[in-house]
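Folding Problem: From Residues to Backbone Shape
Fields: amino acid sequence; protein backbone structure tokens
RECORD BEGINS BELOW THIS LINE
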Amino acid sequence: MLESSEKLAALKRRLAGQGRLAVAFSGGVDSSFLLAVAAEELGAANVVAITVKSALAPAFELEQAVWFCEDCGVRQVVVEADPLATEGVRENGVERCYHCKKGIFGLALEAAVREGFGVLADGTNADDAGDFRPGSAAVAELGVASPLRDASMTKDDIRRLSRQMGLRTWDAPSCACLATRVPYGTPLDPDMLGRIDAAEDYLRHLGFEQVRVRVHGDVARLEVGRTQVARMADPATRMDVAAELKRLGFTYICLDLEGFRTGSMNESIEGGDDDAE
């Protein structure tokens, strides 16, 4: 098995062969690592970060993406998107992510070409290959490169190397499209997504680093890191949380005793994890 340092060397060789590179940049652990390595290897002037802003992306993600680009000295281009207007997304079927990624990455590719970059790369890593990820097919169809995956880099490799490089994202909690908080078949709407985003932002400000607010009708099912379940169950905390989420429009608030886990909305279907968490 290759060591992280060997994988990093392989990644740098792949990037060096590109000359110039556009990175589909969310601000998460994987795309941040890719952007930083690309800027180091190719020079910041030969790299551009393409960030897509939409109702499906948590607001804090865009904030993180902005400051990370400033840290790296890489120019960022923010593209506005309305994925809910794309057929197959608002309806929230099991292929939702395919339709969404096709539209969003299509816009990112157009932006890259306008900026004079012929190659767009994303942050897909080697661990993603085993998940249920219909969006990956859309990305492949569009010809988006996945250099982290091609260099056999796992999430553990990326976090380890990010820490060695001094990147602030090395221990950032995993993030994901807000649609993954809603069961398949439940139509998506901006109001629902905004309430989910506000609720999760509130929980993060309370110190719950890994959070998901999963919505089942008028029930908000809270997932927090497993070491923080007991803290959420503390009487004072749970009453404050319940009051705030009811203010945001949720009728019933419940705590998932299993804690946060990737793709929990997919536990009732065959196939594994969703394209996001």
